[in-house]
TrEMBL record:
It comes from Leptospira biflexa serovar Patoc (strain Patoc 1 / ATCC 23582 / Paris). Coiled coil: none annotated. Keywords: Phosphoprotein. Pfam families: HATPase_c_2, Response_reg. The gene is senB. This is Putative two-component response regulator receiver. The keyword Acyltransferase does not apply.
Length: 296
């Protein structure tokens, strides 16, 4: 996985390099102009950029990328005072944001969700990891957080069957699927609490392994239904867990503590779709996204 990391603080760049150099193909940049030049000459799977940059700030950098047709997913890093700016950046297609100071292991868990993976549909079917019910868009998934990228590649491929789906639609839908499907697996099936997740990340344990081992101890599944028409797409995600009280999830804008581990996924989802509704138990979520061409 190729990552461009942009930060004007040398110590943070060095720390990122030391932490991730053996796991990912990392390129560093110290300001927005340098990052833009590098992006124009290379392709990346993910861009991670600070908002406060010299010469060209993070927002201007992303705006120029998008104006040039570069749709590389990106995460932003910001201080508390820049939180409203970070929200605005979501509307440009950011997949996540982190508040300084942040833990590298917490950042790693987010990067892994967006890591590219070759999708072999035949293998997924034959292994029983995906079951598609004949004649409709109802799918059963074996809950594995490490298979998240493959599952989402499979789901977005189904959405691409609609002649109305655009690149912009798929970017937004992918962001939401990453968050809500991950929630269904890690919090729904595996039953990992936000406190357990925070403790696992702070202790530098392999969080994905921890979640998948929990899932393996259950006989539960995750179910996804896709409903598409001329107006938009509705996605229903249901897990066989105990559910949760949606009202108990804090608003990460009002309470940005703990690096937004709690409530982050629902917040990100709301920034990219038209509506999101949970059932009373909290183990089923339904979201709707209007096709981009309809909005414009």
């Amino acid at each position: 996985m190729k990552i461009l990391f942009v930060d004007d603080e040398e110590t943070i760049r060095e720390l990122f390099w030391e932490y991730f150099k053996d796991e990912f193909n990392v390129t560093l940049a110290s300001d927005g102009m340098e990052a833009l030049a590098i992006s124009n000459q290379n392709t990346f799977d993910l861009i991670i950029s600070d908002i406060s940059l010299p010469k060209l700030n993070g927002i201007q950098f992303i705006q120029k990328l998008r104006a040039d047709g570069n749709q590389t997913p990106f995460l932003v890093i910001t201080g508390d005072s820049d939180i409203q700016i970070a929200i605005d950046v979501f509307r440009m297609g950011a997949v996540d944001f982190f508040l300084k100071p942040f833990r590298m292991e917490a950042l790693r868990s987010r990067i892994k969700k967006f890591e590219n993976a070759d999708i072999d549909l035949t293998l997924l079917y034959n292994s029983g990891e995906i079951t598609q019910f004949s004649g409709d868009c109802k799918i059963k998934l074996k809950p594995q957080i490490k298979k998240l990228t493959s599952y989402i590649a499979f789901l977005t491929k189904q959405i691409l069957n609609s002649p109305h789906a655009s690149t912009e639609d798929l970017i937004s839908i992918k962001i939401v699927l990453y968050e809500l499907l991950a929630n269904a697996i890690e919090h729904g099936v595996a039953g990992v609490s936000y406190a357990e997740k925070q403790e696992c990340l702070e202790s530098n344990l392999d969080y994905f392994k921890f979640v998948d081992e929990r899932c393996a101890d259950t006989n539960s599944s995750v179910f996804v239904e896709l409903l598409m028409d001329d107006v938009g797409v509705t996605v229903v995600i249901r897990d066989e867990g105990n559910g949760f009280a949606v009202s108990s999830i804090p608003n990460p804008i009002e309470n940005p503590s703990a690096n937004l581990v709690s409530g982050r996924g629902i917040f990100l989802a709301k920034m990219n779709i038209d509506s999101i509704v949970y059932n009373e138990k909290g183990n089923e979520v339904r979201f709707f996204k209007t096709w981009n061409r309809i909005v414009h």
